[in-house]
Amino acid sequence: MKMNRILAVGATLLMGIVLAGCGNNVSKSSSNSQEVSGPLKKVGTYTKNSETGKITLLAIKNYHNKAINTKSATYYFKEAKLLKIETTKKSQRANDENNFGKRLNNTYYEYQLGYSLKNNSKKRVSSNGVELITPSGTQLSSNHGAIDELVGDKIQPSTKKTGVIQAVAKKGDIKKMNQYKFVSAELIEDSENYYGVDNQTTINLNK
What we know:
Elements: H1 4-8, E1 26-27, E2 34-35, E3 45-49, E4 53-69, E5 73-86, H2 94-100, E6 107-119, E7 125-127, E8 131-133, E9 139-142, E10 145-148, E11 154-155, E12 160-169, E13 181-183, E14 187-189, E15 196-198, E16 202-204
Parallel strand pairs: 2-3, 9-10
Antiparallel strand pairs: 1-4, 3-4, 4-5, 5-6, 6-12, 7-11, 7-14, 8-9, 8-13, 10-12, 13-16, 14-15
């Protein structure tokens, strides 16, 4: 099921304001570690269970609901996280392997970005999915290295939906959180006409 693992750990991106200071600061990995039972809100905290393995928050960046307009939509950005996932059996990473569309090692890293999409058009639209460009310049889409929670969702005129995009990451991305770029969704009129309402746009979140 789509997003099964992230739901199991309490939708870590969708709760709490977790970063002090300005939006350009990134809180990075700390030597202090503490197991928590709810959402990961502080660097160094982790969750651990038999279904998902151990998930540790390595870095976090708060965008304070920054708004970016495209042709027919507004995107609001919440916070980005870099997670370390440690598994001991294949079943713990099976959902991610299925959704990311790639084989994962016992220990792997994941970038997550919480965002909201508002449909500014007068048509009900369907999202073809947002994408991410990694610090190394690789563009990742759903089932090709990334998972977008809102892919395929229908959005009514003048309404907003909130979701998360996740992508396979590298440990070194802890120091490169500012280099991730967001690619907006292609929005298609949700009717028999299949008229394009909004094209993809690359957004630099740190400008």
